[in-house]
Write a structure and sequence with these properties.
This protein has 75 residues and is mostly helical. The protein has four helices and no strands.
C-alpha cells in the first residue's frame, strides 16, 4: 500500500510530456539553422496555413454577423 502511494506521489511531479504514451514523431520546434532557405519557406507556409485553419471559427463569425445585423435592423 505504501509503495503505491509513493509511486502516485512521485508520478504527480512528472510532467505529462514525459509520461505521454503517444510520442511526437518530430522534435518541436525544429532547428531552422539546419534547413535550407527553400525548406524554411515551405515550412513557414504550411505552418501559417495550418494555424489559419486551426483558428478559423466559421460558426462564431456567422453568429457575430447575425447579431450585428439584428442589432442594426432592430435597434
Amino acid at each position: 500500500m505504501y509503495r503505491t502511494l509513493a509511486l502516485r506521489k512521485a508520478a504527480e511531479n512528472v510532467p505529462y510530456i514525459y509520461t505521454n504514451p503517444f510520442r511526437a514523431k518530430r522534435h518541436w520546434p525544429p532547428d531552422f539553422s539546419k534547413f535550407s532557405q527553400k525548406q524554411q519557406f515551405r515550412f513557414e507556409r504550411t505552418y501559417k496555413r495550418r494555424t489559419k485553419l486551426k483558428w478559423a471559427r466559421p460558426k462564431w463569425v456567422k453568429g457575430v454577423k447575425l447579431v450585428q445585423m439584428a442589432s442594426i435592423t432592430c435597434g
